[in-house]
Amino acid sequence: VRPANPPILPAPRKAEAKPETLPGGPPQRPQRHFRRGPPKLQMRAPESDAKDRGQDAAAPGAGAGGAGWEGAAQRTSWRGAATEPEQGTRDPLRKAEGTPKPSPQAARIPQDPAQQNERQQAVVEAFRHAWAGYHKFAWGHDELKPVSRSFAEWFGLGLTLIDSLDTMWILGLKKEFAEAREWVSEKLWFQKNVDVNLFESTIRILGGLLSAFHLSGDDLFLEKAEDFGNRLMPAFQTPSKIPYSDVNIGTGVAHPPRWTSDSTVAEVTSIQLEFRELSRLTGNKKFQEAVEQVARHVHSLSGKKDGLVPMFINTNSGLFTHLGVFTLGARADSYYEYLLKQWIQGGKTETQLRDDYLEAVEGIRRHLLGRSEPRKLTFVGELAHGHFSAKMDHLVCFLPGTLALGAHHGLPADHMELARALMDTCYQMNRQMETGLSPEIAHFNLYSQKAAKDVQVKPADRHNLLRPETVESLFYLYRFTGERKYQDWGWEILQSFNAYTRVPSGGYSSIGNVQDARNPQPRDKMESFFLGETLKYLYLLFSDDPDLLSLDAYVFNTEAHPLPIWAPA
Question: Residue ranges under compositional bias (Basic and acidic residues) (predicted)?
Fold first, then answer.
């Protein structure tokens, strides 16, 4: 595996505490929570399938940490039906004019650990510890269950491994990357009778493969990405062309959730970066045309409020549903993020995207901003049929970074002022908790009361899923301002992860109660985004090299996978 050093990209086609004991008792039953898309559809691994494992389940050689391990956890068999996808979902790999070129900036990523500062080395150590648990107990499976030393499946596609590829490359973990690359080459096959969520699989798997291609220059990842992209295309075969939430990548049958014919607005408007880039690399316009048709349709819809969009859209009618409810949290968040990032990805030529984003920011200012007591923190609430709620998901902490990114790329300077204010709020959402880690959802105090804190938490909301949004925005704010306090805040959060979520045998666990430092209630789950996003953003935050994945050369998808900004035509 070698760094790539190709020519410039062609223009797009048109169309410190590290205790080894985890506080708390046995793992808590996880509460229902939202990813950035719809609720997760659980797919249980069997108790035992040792007879079917054979060589496929054998543990690979020593991995991160170099420990002598006993062997891999039992592996789910995903043989399923061997039906071909519907016609048109599986084209041979088409090359764009000439050979697709990975990113020219990739060669600038230092591969020498000696160039890492002390805080970056701490992130590398945390990654190695997390990877050691995954390698030992969940190799090739979707997610590690670190407390029970087992695994969980969602799609059965090695989700954590694929989500981590570019992180390993950026951190200089050559051995681990090479071993993961071997698994992708030999074990990652998409001809499986399994439903995947279009949004989550696009941002994690398609985005992860595309980013790994750009950083490493290895065509294997692009070939896998195109195969997977083809298998997602049946999702767009709806009356309205608004895609279904789920698609079977083996049979090519797509469908909405069992309980509704709606998709969430975030999930149908946060797949564009990846599909557009896949078209640019392969020369096959169908990927870009499908997602841009969705974007144009959503742009034209009524039911918005000063640029703010409802959370749901019907796949049959193509209309917004559940009107009058507006949030920047789950089910709507990344719609706003991808307006800006598509504009940046395309070389700032698609003014409709920019204008929709600018209108939405003004809508946020007009309808969703509040100020708490006693510290007068600026927060983003929710609006339901004219009623304002002082509720803010931790997911909303993507917004300071997005606002700062827009200001860096020439949008109004007052966006940076709002970014700074919201960044302070997101830091306090962590700081005011006993563990130093943010709850999944916070409510802000609006009234002056004795001894009242700004950030209040309901019992059902006090879990932490190792989410990246706060450190993501810290990365952007530090990169654009150079203010060291943002690095220091990120360092505090890393120390809290080590103190309250680190599992001695390997991995990090989501916790059930951020307000109980003595018993944070480990939930026995390490989401793939902890390695794919949280640790990556921390590593980049602690770097003082502005050319390490320059934000003038790359745009990060909503799973922190860097994709190149297109060169002008």
Answer: 46-55, 87-98
**Which residues have CB under 8 Å from 128's CB, separation 6+?**
64, 65, 173
Question: What's residue 569's pLDDT?
Answer: 55
9 token code pair = 């990209």
Task: Give the whole-angstrom CA distance, residue 439 versus residue 441.
Answer: 5
Give the tokens for residue 87. 């016609």
Enclosing H/E stretch for 500: helix 484-500
- Catalytic residue of the set 469, 524, 527, 559: 469
Output the CA–CA distances (angstroms, integers) from residue 29 to 26, 393, 509, 516, 560, in the order listed.
9, 21, 13, 17, 28
Q: What is the pTM of this model?
A: 0.85
User: Which among 364, 374, 373, 430 is positioned nearest to 399, based on CA atoms?
Assistant: 364
Mean per-residue pLDDT for 237-256? 98
Contacts of 221 (CB under 8 A, 6+ apart): 165, 184, 209, 210, 212, 213
Is residue 112 part of the annotated active site? The answer reads no
Can you tell me which residue has the tokens 């089910």?
Answer: 331
| Dist CA 135 CA 133 (whole Å) | 5
Task: Give the number of other Cβ atoms within 10 Å of residue 390's Cβ.
Answer: 17
Structure tokens at 158: 């090695």
Q: Is 555 helix (H, G, I), strand (E, B) or coil?
A: strand
In the predicted structure, residue 440 carries a pLDDT above the cut 80: yes
**Alpha-carbon span 236 to 375, nearest angstrom:** 47
Among residues 440, 524, 527, 533, the one annotated as catalytic is 440
Catalytic hit among 142, 143, 292, 333: 333
pLDDT of 76 over the 70 cut = no
For 102, which DSSP code? Answer: -
| 476 within 8 A of 543, measured Cβ to Cβ | no
User: Where is the binding site for Ca(2+), in residues?
Assistant: 558
Active site residue 533: no
Active-site residue, 97 included: no
* CA pseudo-torsion sign 158, 164, 166, 168: negative
pLDDT at 531 over 50: yes
- The pairing of strands 562-564 and 554-556 is antiparallel
**From 142, 153, 200, 274, the catalytic residue:** 200
Query: Annotated catalytic, 186?
Result: no
* pLDDT category of residue 567 using cuts at 50, 70 and 90: confident
124, HSE (Cβ side, Cα atoms, 13 Å): 21
Contacts of 508 (CB under 8 A, 6+ apart): 126, 129, 130, 146, 466, 497, 501, 502, 526, 530
CA distance 326 to 442: 17
Which residues fall in the annotated binding site?
558
